[in-house]
Amino acid sequence: MQTHLLGYPRIGSNRELKKVCEQYWSGKATLNELLETGKNISLQNWKLQQAARIDLVPCNDFSYYDQVLDMTLSVGAIPERYKEIASRASNSELDLYFAMARGYQKDGLDITAMEMTKWFDTNYHYIVPEFHKNQQFRLFSKKIISEFVSAKQAGINAKPVIIGPLTYLLLGKEKEEGFDKLDLAQNLLPVYLQILKELENHGAEYIQFDEPFLALDLNEKAKETYQFIYTEIRKQFPNLKFIVTTYFDGLQDNLSLAASLPVDVLHIDLVRCPEQLDEVLNVIPQTLSLSLGIIDGRNIWKNDFERSLGFIEKAVYAIGSERIFIAPSCSLLHSPYDLDLETNEKTLSPEIKQWMAFAKQKVDEVVALKKLASGKADYQALQQYAENKKAVETRKTSALIHNQDVKDRVDVTTEDDAKRNSPFSIRKEEQQKILQLPLFPTTTIGSFPQTKEVRAWRSKFKKGELTAEQYDDLLKKETERTIRWQEEIGIDVLVHGEFERNDMVEYFGEQLSGFAFTQNGWVQSYGSRCVKPPVIYGDVHRPHPMTVYWSQYAQSLTQKWVKGMLTGPVTILQWSFVRDDQPRSLTCKQIALAIRDEVNDLEKAGIRIIQIDEPAIREGLPLRRSEWQQYLKWAVEAFRISSSGVEDATQIHTHMCYSEFNDIIQNIADMDADVITIECSRSQMELLNAFADFKYPNEIGPGVYDIHSPRVPSKEEMVELLKKAQAVIPAQQLWVNPDCGLKTRHWDETEKALIAMVEASKEAAKIFDKEGNLVK
Ligand code: GLN
Ligand code: ZN
Description:
Layout: E1 2-3, H1 16-25, H2 31-52, E2 58-59, H3 67-74, H4 83-87, H5 93-102, E3 104-106, E4 109-111, E5 116-118, E6 125-127, E7 130-131, H6 143-153, E8 159-163, H7 165-171, E9 173-174, H8 185-201, E10 206-210, H9 220-236, E11 241-245, H10 255-260, E12 265-269, H11 276-283, E13 289-295, H12 305-319, E14 324-328, H13 350-353, H14 359-373, H15 379-397, H16 404-412, H17 424-435, H18 452-463, H19 468-489, E15 493-494, H20 506-509, E16 513-516, E17 523-526, E18 529-531, E19 535-541, H21 548-556, E20 561-567, H22 569-574, H23 584-604, E21 609-613, H24 628-643, E22 651-656, H25 665-671, E23 675-678, H26 688-694, E24 699-702, H27 715-728, H28 747-766
Parallel strand pairs: 1-14, 2-8, 7-9, 8-10, 10-11, 11-12, 12-13, 13-14, 15-20, 20-21, 21-22, 22-23, 23-24
Antiparallel strand pairs: 3-4, 5-6, 16-19, 17-18
Helix pairs in contact: 1-2, 8-9, 12-14, 14-15, 18-19, 23-24, 24-25, 27-28
The protein binds glutamine (GLN) and zinc ion.
């Protein structure tokens, strides 16, 4: 039996890589300092795993930005537009690399970055490879080889982690029509073979190919290409040992394909899909070993040793311990570094902490499981076993986690609770009687610029340098200024600006029961950017109102309507570390009930328009299509539970900011929000087509202003977009708003853009009468 890891976090236990990268980008650190930091992180990671006695330590799991971009550079798939940068002698390979990741605006060049998108269903984002019809590949960066050599110099015969050729192609985007990226496999193969040759020459023994696409829906051609590529690789390298890893879902209909690949070890994710173990054991051929991904690489909970030992025993019984590897389910890239760094007992109590494990602790778990399963448990392992058992047991019964009132309330929640009193057509009339909004009403998505000052106040308040009263006063002034300004430029539905919020999930988590927070639980999101998700450990409920104070204050300042702002249950769930002791759907329902209480309290406080943001609904979609409807059913229901406790006359908004509604438009309609605002400007209203084709009945605010860029759009541009929108959606259904919140923008550009936006709405309204019919 052997242990291994698929990958280790690389941002540094104190985010050293983040810091040095950002310094390098702004010219404050040298290339040498950057490289030095990178090498040290790799070295520390290796030494830690070596000391813990992991059998196969990974290398090339380190990256200065993203492992997919590393692969793109390795195989020389560098898009034309970067040729100039590559050719300049003053630029290093890393400069070219960062230009591809982040764009390049220097020395008279202005070159856009490569696209970035989500890594499967994680919150990690990778840089999307760009492919052309006659795409050529060649060995360009030698990073894979040099990392292997560095590990060797450190005394470790490491296992290079390489994105498998099929997964690499499938992650990419065809930049022109008339070809299939799978056809590039022939061209790509020689570069992989060359890399393997060099690794073999340097003494590599094991090679890990990440092939998560084997856990997704694959077409016939992809399946054939898998066979072809791995057969070719095997032919050339009869002596290397290949581990093919799959994760984030089960193999399902790809099982026979995966099991028939001529490789040495197959890794499966038993956290996401424990039920696949039996099937895999049934079909696995004699020649193949099995890597059991039993420790959750994507969450922060301690493993349940007893349960894991059950899996291992079963596998050992079926195929023998020599053919078993023990591992986390996926790379630990998605776990924070080290629980030992968490020392703030106020935000993370020792009782909760004893249930948790970060990357470093998970390494020890892998090793302990091997010892326990192979009957070679030493004192340390036995003690770990006893502690683990105790933690698992206390978690099952702890009063900190289990709140009978919450469970009872979930039990008595009925379908009626997830239904508004009347259908939209009736609500619309009731709402209009009170709200009296014009045609093409204007609003924003919630946040206004979080300036340096606002952030400084918050940090001073947290450090105790400002009293609660002083902090409150400052925020009130900023809110009032923002209300006055919106009144002045003539926005119809105002917002308070969200200055009191650090983050749209954390702000709610901090006020709800059942949430804990870490100080250092950072996980890489993309490049140098990290997130620190809250930890949902227990039954969630709302001990007191969360936003009423600010919404009520803002409403008291003006005669115009102020919109209440909430984050929806699915988004809160999606952007947190969640419980693994109950289904996600149940946790989501608990959050939904807490948000429902808040919505109802806002209504009682006189807030007539309430927005419940759900930007994360789509990213929660399961990887396999067959599982979509089940997810959408509970996700939509959660939104409805949160929003359906109000009167017909109270207007519920929701907001989402991602493309692609086509697949889920029925479910979006089922959410039954009175108004939905969506990001639309970058696609030039194309996104609206899904709504138009569907004849979406409720109101829609398609974004007319791209808030991701400092660029100020002109009034004319926005009028054009509104005309486009009105061509497919009746004018009476349309709202006018930016794509998303303005938190990251500066005031000067925000002011100009919103003034133009209000003018655009007035201009658009001139074209129609009150009923929304064309005047001329
Ligand atoms: N109300 C939030 C804001 O304006 C919405 C943010 C989001 O959609 N990500 O900041
Ligand atoms: Zn948004």
